[in-house]
Amino acid sequence: MSSAHSSSINNPASSATGSQSATSSPTFSPLYQQIKALITQSLQSGEWRPGELIPSEIELANRFKVSQGTVRKAIDELSAENLVVRRQGKGTFVATHHEARAQFRFLRLKPDVGEAQYPDNNIVEAKRLRAPADIARQLDIKTGDSVYFIKRVQSFGEAPTILEELWLPGVIFKGLSVERVLEYKGPMYALLETEFGIQMIRAVENIRAVLADTSASGLLAVELNTPLLSVNRVSFTYGDKAVEVRRSLYVTNHHHYQNELS
Question: Could you list the residue ranges forming a coiled coil in this record (predicted)?
């Protein structure tokens, strides 16, 4: 895959002269980081869509006028950040939330025994609301701005295990209907990617222990005051823009929260 447009790379030697004043210290980005940023710009602009094959390392090296090794190092980092996926003998593809591996990237609740399974969804409530102050702050919007609110229970087998509230900014997901949410059976991130072109790139989670209140105990079929794991997540897309707040309650009788640190 090739492209007609060109992109410029900073030259450290030329950057050190010219507009830099005697009192300022120029900061330089390694060449592979500059290439990584340019590839990310193409991903963000939609030049290569989720699931599509991106140009080969040789093609990208020619496009950016750098070595193949520099491109490879840039793609290594993008792969480590789950923005692209390498497939042996096939090339490098834009990551998509429709892939099975991606569906478990953000779902950190694992069974104590057996393989991880994607839960069944039961939508309890879906509607448009005005953003409360705390949600607006996390989404970087104004209090009272339009948001989509989705409340659902996720079950493994017949056991309700996750109670979630999702808050999505209305201006970004304009056109998302309650009917579409109710009829869709797959992962929510896959729906948002397909219909709105929004990919979740990273997330920040805050975790604490809480006790089940009357509402949670009823929906999760547990006793009142049962210990639950509370997870507040803010998800971000390209440009580090917050596009979702998700508040979850996990039943951990047969599951645990697993995170890999590196």
Answer: none
